[in-house]
Amino acid sequence: MTHERILAVCRSNWEYRGIDDASVREMLDELAHHLRDAEAAGRTARDVVGGDVRAFAASWARARAPLPRRALRTTALACFVLGCLLLFAHLIQWTAHLAVTADRVAFYAVLTAVTVVWETRRGGLGLGKSWALSLAVALPVLLLANRLAGDATLLTTPLWATALLLLPGLPYAVTDTRARKNTPATG
Questions:
Q1: What are 156's strand-pairing partners?
Q2: Closest Cα partner for 16 from 8, 52, 3, 164?
Q3: How far apart are CA 85 and CA 100, in angstroms?
Q4: Which of 102, 100, 101, 106 is nearest to 137 (CA)?
Q5: Which of 15, 47, 119, 141 is the most exposed place for a label (fewest CB within 10 A)?
Q6: Is 97 left (phi over 0), alpha (psi -120 to 50) or beta?
Q7: Average pLDDT of span 164-176
Q8: pLDDT, tens only, 42-96
Q9: What's the Cα-to-Cα distance from 151 to each of 97, 98, 140, rounded to whole Å?
Q10: Is 132 exposed, middle or buried (0-12, 13-18, 19+ CB in 10 A)?
Q11: DSSP string for 123-135
């Protein structure tokens, strides 16, 4: 495999995992330097990256953004998404106190769990695709929970509590949005 192909595979993997552009460029420069040094020493690219370039790229991405940091970011963004959904429900029902039922609890728990697990394990799909995946899993759970538990109110959520859910993920959401706007379109 050529150096260019190795660098392209690594770039693709790192971008898929949501590593910021500056870090991707830095990592690519470092890898290119290691590949050139290996070539000068008479070694092959396989000696540097091993037999599986994708596994090499994935392990470097995990080292660059360790699990605790990815989990914190993903959990904060899951709270942000949950807050957005609750805020949307407040606006649709035009109420300051939202009734929380068993089916909603199940829906939001599954939505949050799928989002956190997917983002932590697989990397960034992007906000839209991640929400679509989470909704595709959570909606059947909502329907099943409604069928099994009914629509009795467990508790009510005030609007201020919904606003508090938005706060942990707001910096991440703003940063991600700015990064997407500043990234030149490719293809």
A1: 99
A2: 8
A3: 13
A4: 106
A5: 47
A6: beta
A7: 86
A8: 999 889 999 899 889 888 888 877 667 777 877 888 888 889 988 999 999 999 9
A9: 16, 13, 16
A10: exposed
A11: ----HHHHHHHHH
The type of residue at 123 is G
Mean pLDDT estimate for the chain: 83
For the chain, percent helix, then strand, then coil, each to nearest 5? 75, 5, 20
pTM: 0.57
β partners of residue 157: 98
Q: How far is CA 90 from the centre of its chain?
A: 25
DSSP labels for 4-44? HHHHHHHHHHHHHTT--HHHHHHHHHHHHHHHHHHHHTT--
Cross-strand bridge partners of residue 97: 158
User: How many residues are present in the chain?
Assistant: 187
Specify which residues 155 forms β-bridges with. Answer: 100
Q: Which residues contact 52 (CB under 8 A, 6 or more apart)?
A: none
What would the two tokens of residue 98 be?
């939202």
For position 118, what pLDDT does the model report?
Answer: 73
